[in-house]
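This entry is retained here.
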Amino acid sequence: MRTLQIERSSQRPPAQAQDRARESLTRDREPAVRESGERAHRGSGGSQAAAAPRGTVWLYGLHAVQAALSNPARRLRRLVVTEEGSAALSARLPQPWALTPETVDRARIDLLLGRDAVHQGAALLADLLPQTVLATALERPGPILILDQVTDPRNIGAILRSAAAFGVAAVIVQERHAPEETGSLAKAASGALETVPLLRAVNLARTIVMLKAANLWIVGLDAEATGNLDGMAFKERRVALVLGGEGSGLRRLTRESCDELAKLPMAGLMESLNVSAAAAVALYELTR
């Protein structure tokens, strides 16, 4: 029988701290964790992209648009499609849709989103997703993912996609070091942005204390840990998995807030994986 060797980086917080955290979980709105605020966004990385109105975002790509049209929590503003895009979208989601589409040529969508956007002939202007508090997210089953200074929107989108595939309850990012809700993030998420809550924490260490108070076991993924991640070791626990930013890994305070540190076994010459690939492998191991 395998035994997981781990590094214990911290002790559980004192009872008073856990009590305060539990009280925070019951509040109507959690100030330390919130979803993307209402800010102005651009459709994509292209220089010709038109700015979306404040509090809205241009979503594009068949999967992202289909998922948003099917999400009752999304407030939809404008749907723009090419004839080919309309046919492809109808094959995935039969009409009538929640709003009447505008049929345009591809150049018109390029002008809205920028030429770099791979929109597949479908673009949807929608309000940013409404806020979800941590307590509500914890009512969902499954592990929690915490991303410490992961900044690439495509990586976060890919992580959301893996999170949806492996039944993650929510993904938590740091407010100051994570991208806003954008079309490129939603495109990489392939619809998962509509189904997995993406929460923003002002203070990750405080959020981790709250998760501990909710009886989650905090496991930091660290290439320098002494033991490998072993999903069977956590079969009786609900886990919050913490992953560090691209290149920098976990910050010291985040690492010290974890109950355990573990690494992915690497048999080849590579020392680490891209954070989105590491998230997918770790989630498979946790849920196998």
